[in-house]
Amino acid sequence: MFGKKKRLNVQLDYAIRLDTRIQDISFTVIDTETTGFAIGAKDGLIEIGAVHIEQLEVTDNTFQTFVNPARSIPHHITKLTSIEQVHIDYAPSPLEAIGQLFEFMETYQSVSWIGHHVGFDQLVLKKELAREKYTYKVPLSFDTMDLIHYLHPTSDQLDLDDYARLFGTKSFQRHRALGDALSTAHLFVELIKRLEKKNITTVSDLLRIKNGNVNKAIFI
């Protein structure tokens, strides 16, 4: 019989009113790198990156750590990310690293996660915690892809760099957790500014976009 799962002693699920203005929310943009896509099976977490957004400004408050997945990094992942075995051999365990990420979020009382395909990053954290019999309550989260598809419904499945060029935002080192988190943070802020011009200004408005309950807008 499986034992009861434990919870990490951090607060991530802050209550928030639906009429709260987007600009008044504290966000954490997250990104992860892994040894592959078979999360929960043979692959594991090797890097976490995060950046804090306050008052719709990308701050200098960032988080980055390598993670030791207790397995070797495949050659093609090293080639893609430049993360080598030496970077992870003495890095924190997944449980320790995720705990550090959550403490970072708690420090700034972040009420919402942001990510580019954020569901994957959440799955990675969930599976790594599950291996240690831990769980957590996922905070309010938004995916930049949902916002992009609302503003630009005809856009193809492009690379993060392509979206940065499309919306005129900064790009940072690709396929590294902090670099991708920074690129996503700047993209998110620009997307929100464009949405505000279309009277998308509150948490409720963002949730309607997330849930597909709004009419598609025309990209400008």
Structure description:
This protein is α/β, with parallel strands linked by helices. It has one domain: Ribonuclease H-like superfamily/Ribonuclease H (Nucleotidyltransferase, domain 5, 2-Layer Sandwich). It is 38% helix and 18% strand. The chain has 8 helices and 7 strands, in the order E-E-E-E-H-H-H-E-H-E-E-H-H-H-H. The strands form 2 sheets. Strands 4-3-2-5-7 form a 5-stranded mixed sheet, sandwiched between helices. Helix 5 runs parallel beside helix 7 and helix 6 packs parallel to helix 7. The longest helix is centred in the last third of the chain and has 20 residues. The protein starts with 5 loop residues before the first strand and ends in a 10-residue tail after the last helix. The C terminus is likely disordered.
Gyration radius (Cα, Å) is 17 Å
Number of strands: 7
The chain-level mean pLDDT equals 91
Helix content: 25-40%
- The number of helical elements comes to 8
Overall outline: globular
Number of domains: 1
Considering the chains and any ligands shown, give keywords for the structure:
single chain, 220 residues, alpha/beta, Nucleotidyltransferase, domain 5, five-stranded mixed sheet, two-stranded parallel ribbon, 7 strands, 18% strand, globular
Produce the secondary structure layout.
Elements lengths: L5 E2 L19 E8 L10 E10 L2 E10 L8 H7 L3 H4 L5 H14 L4 E4 L2 H14 L2 E2 L4 E4 H8 L8 H8 L9 H20 L6 H8 L10
Parallel strand pairs: 1-6, 2-5, 5-7
Antiparallel strand pairs: 2-3, 3-4
Task: Please sum up the structure shown.
With about 220 residues, the chain is α/β, with parallel strands linked by helices. It has helices at about 75-80, 85-90, 95-105, 120-130, 145-150, 160-165, 175-195, 205-210, and strands spanning about 5, 25-35, 45-55, 55-65, 110-115, 135, 140-145. The model is unreliable at about 215-220 (pLDDT under 50).
